């Protein structure tokens, strides 16, 4: 079985639709959605409905900080644009959609896999895994062999050996990586809807449970259409569209 690991959709319809199509063509039979379905983007209703449909079909779905911000109110530490986007998003979602976001679990376990938005040591605190120190803290907090999380918006892979030796790896897209059985692994697939590594292509990853191989993916999508939809949405900060456009330029 292949699991598509998708995080940080951020109401980006163009990116999410492209990634779903790409993942299915790669043979993904299961979807693990790692949070932040809303916030920043212009199509929260469409994205939430797609997430709900996938969950009804058996997808693993966990909550992100923007999802809780929209359903429960902005969290401390969110910047001005994020707060503005949360208030805008709340006015665009139905009560049923808001209840769905509020109902999502902070984490899910399935055999030797842990799915969580930010980290394993404090899922509801949403601390970032910014480097090896936080990654090791997260791996020490679970007995699961694989931890899959988002929140950082940049693809990254960390590992911890049975002797306590830690390592990290910045992956190249499209290259299968064998996840050796004598290690724990922490996988950050990157952001589907808002990459922040200078490459505008949507990021996600596919984990092959049978071969125990992980493949990071980058999928070009219509960034200009996503930015135009943001500009056309009254009430969303213009900087959000400019940020997507900036990513486009930076990735060339």
TrEMBL record:
InterPro entries, alphabetized: Ap4A_hydrolase (IPR050126), Calcineurin-like_PHP_lpxH (IPR024654), Metallo-depent_PP-like (IPR029052), Pesterase_MJ0912 (IPR011152)
SUPFAM superfamilies from the UniProt entry: Metallo-dependent phosphatases (SSF56300)
Superkingdom assignment: Bacteria
Stretches assigned to the Calcineurin-like phosphoesterase domain: 1-211
Gene Ontology annotations for the cellular component aspect, listed alphabetically: cytoplasm
Annotated GO MF terms: phosphatase activity
UniProt family annotation: Belongs to the metallophosphoesterase superfamily. YfcE family.
Protein name listed in UniProt: Metallophosphatase family protein
Natural source organism: Roseateles aquatilis
């Amino acid at each position: 079985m292949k699991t598509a690991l998708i995080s940080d959709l951020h109401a980006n319809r163009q990116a999410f639709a492209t990634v779903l199509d790409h993942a299915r063509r790669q043979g993904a039979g299961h979807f693990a959605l790692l949070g932040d379905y809303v916030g920043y983007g212009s199509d929260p209703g469409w994205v939430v409905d797609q997430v709900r449909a996938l969950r009804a079909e058996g997808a693993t779905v966990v909550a992100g900080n923007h999802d809780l911000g929209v359903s429960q109110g902005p969290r401390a530490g969110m910047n001005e644009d994020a707060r503005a986007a949360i208030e805008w998003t709340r006015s665009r979602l139905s009560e049923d959609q808001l209840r769905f976001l509020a109902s999502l679990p902070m984490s899910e376990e399935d055999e030797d896999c842990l799915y969580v938005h930010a980290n394993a040591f404090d899922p509801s605190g949403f601390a970032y895994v910014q480097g090896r120190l936080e990654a090791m803290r997260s791996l020490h907090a679970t007995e699961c062999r694989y931890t899959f999380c988002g929140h950082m918006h940049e693809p990254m892979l960390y590992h911890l050996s049975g002797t306590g030796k830690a390592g990290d790896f910045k992956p190249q897209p499209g290259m299968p990586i064998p996840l050796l059985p004598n290690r724990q692994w922490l996988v950050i697939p990157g952001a589907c809807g808002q990459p922040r590594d200078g490459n505008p292509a949507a990021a996600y990853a596919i984990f092959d449970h049978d071969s125990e191989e992980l493949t990071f993916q980058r999928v070009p999508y219509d960034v200009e259409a996503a930015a135009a939809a943001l500009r056309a949405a009254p009430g969303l900060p213009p900087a959000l569209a400019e940020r997507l456009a900036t990513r486009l330029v930076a990735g060339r």
